[in-house]
Design a protein that fits this description.
about 425 residues, alpha/beta, FAD/NAD(P)-binding domain, 3 domains, six-stranded mixed β-sheet, 11 helices, 28 strands, about 35% helix, about 25% strand, NAD(P)H dehydrogenase (quinone) activity, NAD(P)/FAD-dependent oxidoreductase, NADH-Q_oxidoreductase
Length: about 425
């Protein structure tokens, strides 16, 4: 039986393993295995909501083991250590608990087809002090850390009868930085209704720092401008053309010599693939450790190894690279699925072509701005407000549909509405 391993249970990897399980695994045509070092999956674009407490990850997180059981694939918990392409095996590191007790020994898994979907981590560009003093909002654990530190600062302020401010600096004004800035003001608004009556937006000092000329540099200028205007109305101090050269325990230092004081600092300025991916298994990687792939999403040096999502450097027809977005991971998962089926049946593989469906940025409950692209608009159409919010939420629903199907996703939406009545608007613990 053909052995297919998917390493990485992010948006693309989990969708692909699910599709393969439903088709090949269910009919016993292949043995599908998903490998991830975590026990559960949470859609990465939601992490800023987890960080502020507006989303309870205990409700929205998905158990890999339970999902694997329901969709005819196996789940192996572990961290990738190496790839032996000659023997066609991957090596997983030993797995220990928080006390250093061995839970799983190091082991090897055989594959016929390997799909790498490990995603990305934050890139600190070797800026001094960042790794020691900043929070990288790229995992649920980091989001928990942020929420704990944020709640502690608000408690300290409350104990002083509202004297002083909570200073938070966010480096990088891409989608994560912009959405987190707005979500923080929503958190303050909600906390006022839970016994923190002395809190208001004037007590929250958020600095959003961007080295480029404008926020949301990957999006059209008119969307960037609309988002900038909304953030300014909320009270966010947006600093463009500002490069951070150092992070200390009490704040950030800029290239111009200015000091931005902060009790909490978040680094969201760029991505890279995990460092251990550099030249792993002798495969071709780029300067940020991504695996270089052909248009079929197969790695350049091995047709039995695919790479999708943020981990893949895939060149488009115009010479640019596919951007690291959730919609790209979703599309790549679909293309890799079709190409794996074609490979198993001896058919020609198709090239992956990135289709930009537009981009949306949620400014919490205050606004949503973005652009939609497609046949109806004959180009791009700027949207904002309620319509944009509905479309933004629908992106997550599409991810859920890919994993669970229509009926189960509909039930999840119903449960979500019920929880709005039963649960507090903010996770307070």
């Amino acid at each position: 039986m053909t052995k297919i391993i998917v390493v990485g249970g992010g948006a693309g990897g989990l969708e692909l393993a699910t599709k393969l399980g439903r088709t090949l695994g269910r009919k016993k045509r292949a043995q599908i295995t998903l490998v991830d070092r975590k026990a559960s999956h949470l859609w990465k674009p939601l992490l800023h909501e987890v960080a502020t407490g507006s989303l309870d990850e205990g409700v929205d997180a998905l158990s890999y083991r339970a999902h694997a059981k329901n969709h005819y694939f196996d789940f192996q918990m572990g961290s990738l250590n190496d790839i032996d392409r000659e023997r066609k095996v991957i090596a997983l590191s030993e797995f220990k608990d928080d006390h250093g007790e061995l839970l799983m020994p190091s082991r090897e898994l055989e594959y016929d087809i390997l799909v790498m979907a490990l995603g990305s981590t934050s890139n600190d560009f070797n800026t001094p002090g960042v790794r020691d003093n900043c929070i990288f909002l790229d995992s649920p654990e980091q989001a928990h850390r942020f929420r704990t530190e944020m709640n502690n600062q608000f408690l300290k302020l409350h104990a002083k009868n509202g004297q002083g401010t909570v200073d938070i600096a966010i480096v990088g004004a891409g989608a994560t930085g912009v959405e987190l800035s707005a979500e923080l003001h929503n958190a303050v608004k909600e906390l006022r209704t839970y016994g923190f009556g002395d809190l208001d937006s004037s007590k929250l000092n958020v600095n959003l720092v961007e080295a480029g000329e404008r926020i949301l540099p990957a999006l059209p200028p008119r969307i960037s401008s609309a988002a900038h205007s909304e953030l300014t109305k909320l009270g966010v101090n947006v600093r463009t053309n500002t490069m951070v050269t150092q992070a200390d325990s009490d704040g950030l230092t800029t290239k111009g010599g200015d000091k931005i004081p902060a009790q909490i600092m978040v680094w969201a300025a760029g991505i890279k693939a995990p460092d251990f991916m550099k030249d792993i298994g002798g495969l071709e990687t780029n300067r940020i450790n991504q695996l270089v792939v052909k248009n079929t999403l197969q790695t350049t040096l091995d047709d039995n190894i695919f790479a999708i999502g943020d981990l893949a450097q895939c060149t488009q027809a115009d010479g640019s690279f596919v951007p690291p977005r959730a919609q790209a991971a979703h599309q790549m998962a679909s293309c890799a699925f079709s190409n794996i089926i074609a490979k198993l049946n001896g058919r020609d593989l198709k090239d992956y072509i990135y289709k930009d469906k537009g981009s949306l940025v949620s400014l919490s409950r205050f606004s949503t701005v973005g652009s939609l692209m497609g046949n109806l608009t004959k180009g791009s159409m700027m949207v904002e407000g309620r319509i944009a919010r509905v479309v933004y939420i629908s992106l997550y629903r599409m991810h859920q549909m890919a994993l669970h199907g229509l009926i189960k996703t509909s039930l999840m939406m119903l449960v979500g509405r019920i929880n709005r009545v039963l649960r507090p608007n903010l996770k307070l613990h």
